[in-house]
Write a structure and sequence with these properties.
The protein has 506 residues and is of the alpha/beta class. The chain is 43% helix and 15% strand. The chain contains 22 helices and 15 strands. A six-stranded mixed sheet has the order 3-4-14-9-10-13, with helices on both faces. Strands 8-5-6-7-15 form a five-stranded parallel sheet, with helices on both faces. Helix 4 runs antiparallel to helix 6 (129-139) and helix 17 (387-401) packs across helix 19 (442-448). The structure holds pyridoxal-5'-phosphate.
Length: 506
């Protein structure tokens, strides 16, 4: 743990690998590299403390607050560089000047993280990552073209494409499970413009895509081939610390807004509920807590792929199970990559131990943490919702509050209810990360609301949802209605490396 007295911004923060064997690197280098050389994830050598008081932060705009949080982590960026990145990211691409807004319903506060270009929370980080990356390349005099390689369960892909399209000095290749994303998600991706973009469906699930992408990153031979041709891989997945750091901002912002609005007193603890897949979003909330944000419980919500719930209850992470396709596809994940950063932390920052757990996960499909490490999990509460419960929560909250939420957010809202029921903690104000607009999952939402969906296409359903909810159809959905399909490649997971080389003309 960091010592409060030494966490001034003047002391630069470096980044090391969760699996060791890596000299500490600067923030900009960690962003550029994405993943450490031995496949470990970059972690800050210490977690900085918030420097301004919460009431000071309560008076700031999203952009100014983002600067106050991010500068504590990206200590080798100048003020000018960081502010320029923030300005370029959080602008009119968002349909509210608040960038992230709070909505009270169901006895909690929904933190709407879906007001960006692709109407899901990934925009919060992926709108700034390309700017952090190109700035980092400039700082490190990296003259190779950056090739972003991304595996997506639906939302990351489009958000990354939107962020990187036509950014000079970058190319982006996105792999998605051909039969594992919603029709609107797929249409959003395959209509992506930009000569530097490439979108490929695979005949496997998200884990297959992610595993193959990780393999390519670790493949030295392939790296050498790229290097020779003037390219270098980088990652836009949530394992990049350039994704993680911007996600910390909105938890501090949510707290600051509740404080400003008189909902909470300064220092009052809140709960944060996060519908979770890859463990990136909730890890950012955990970092916010470590920075001194008054948070009681981090409520980790899973769908029927409840590998995290089982982990929190048993201490065993076991991916050997059936992969279930649910109405919250961005959480259909059996290997939550970012959990590695938590494992590293609760193992007492022991990289060797962490590497051994990850080796066991990859060879045996499971690992069990020690009793000592389990004590580090008390910040968390985990639970899950099945498909029927998820639909009920959507219907319920609409009936009571006329507020429509998407299935991912509903998993969060339902797990919060279970937490309150189980613990009796109904006094702690709770922020629920609302991770997607209901318009991104219109079919599931309308079905949950008891509306007819058979034989109606997603765009008709969007019209009907608009009539019902009174919330206008977002521009992101309207614009893809007529957009032509520009990407139609489908490959076997084994052929992913060849597809990348083809796109790069190697
Ligand atoms: C990615 C995503 C999640 C899961 O977030 P993680 O950071 O992977 O845990 C939840 N909901 C939606 C809509 C998403 O796109």
């Amino acid at each position: 743990m960091s010592n409060n007295s030494v966490s001034g911004s003047s002391a630069g923060i470096m980044y090391t690998s969760t699996r060791g064997g890596q000299e500490p690197v600067t923030a900009s280098m960690a962003i550029l590299k994405g993943l450490s050389d031995n496949g470990g994830l970059f972690v800050p050598t210490r977690i900085p403390r918030l420097e301004k008081s919460l009431s000071e932060l309560a008076g700031l705009s999203y952009q100014d607050l983002a600067y106050e949080v991010m500068r504590l982590y990206l200590t080798d960026f100048s003020e000018e560089e960081l502010r320029a990145c923030i300005r370029a990211a959080y602008d009119e691409k968002f349909d509210t000047p608040d960038i992230a807004s709070l909505h009270e319903a169901d006895g909690a506060w929904f933190l709407e993280l879906y007001h960006g270009a692709t109407i899901a929370f990934k925009d919060m980080a992926l709108s700034i990552l390309p700017h952090l990356m190109t700035t980092a390349a400039r700082k490190n005099k990296a003259d190779h073209e950056i090739v972003i390689l991304t595996a997506t369960s639906g939302d990351t892909g489009k958000a990354a494409l939107a962020g990187f399209a036509d950014v000079p000095g970058t190319r982006i290749v996105v792999f998605y499970p051909k039969y594992g994303v919603s029709p609107i998600q797929e249409k959003q991706m395959v209509t992506q413009k930009g000569a530097n973009t490439c979108v490929i469906g695979i005949t496997g699930n998200f884990d297959d895509a992610q595993t193959a992408v990780k393999k390519m990153f670790a493949d030295r031979e392939m790296g050498a081939v790229l290097d020779k041709a003037g390219f270098r891989f980088s990652s836009a997945n949530s394992i990049n610390i350039g994704r993680l750091v911007p996600q910390i901002v909105y938890y501090v912002y949510a707290y600051a807004r509740l404080l400003r609005d008189g909902v909470i007193r300064e220092g009052e603890e809140i709960n944060i509920t996060v519908p979770t897949g890859n463990f990136g979003n909730i890890l950012a909330a955990y970092y916010a807590k470590q920075m001194g944000l008054p948070v009681k419980k981090l409520i980790c919500a899973s769908n029927e792929n409840k590998v995290l719930f089982d982990f929190f209850t048993s201490g065993t992470y076991d991916r050997r199970r059936e992969f279930i396709l649910t109405s919250s596809p961005s959480m259909d994940i059996l290997i939550s990559s970012n959990l590695e950063r938590l494992i590293y932390k609760i193992a007492g920052e022991d990289a060797e131990a962490c590497a051994a757990f990850m080796a066991s996960l990859s060879s045996d499909g499971s690992y069990t943490i020690t009793e000592e490490m389990k004590k580090g999990l008390t910040d968390f509460y985990g639970n899950f919702l099945d498909e029927e419960e998820t639909a009920c929560v959507i219907a319920d909250i609409y009936a009571a509050d006329r507020y429509v939420i998407d299935p991912h957010t509903a998993v969060g809202a339902g797990v919060r209810r279970k937490y309150v029921e189980e613990t009796g903690d109904d006094a702690t104000k709770t922020v629920i990360a609302s991770t997607a607009s209901p318009y991104k999952f219109t079919r599931s939402v309308m079905r949950a609301l008891g509306e007819p969906v058979e034989g109606l296409d997603d765009f008709v359903l969007a019209d009907r949802l608009q009539e019902k909810s009174g919330v206008p159809i977002p521009e992101a959905v309207r614009s893809i209605l007529t957009a032509p399909v520009l990407h139609d490649q489908v490959v076997d997971p084994a052929d992913m490396p060849a597809a990348v080389l083809r796109f790069l003309g190697i």
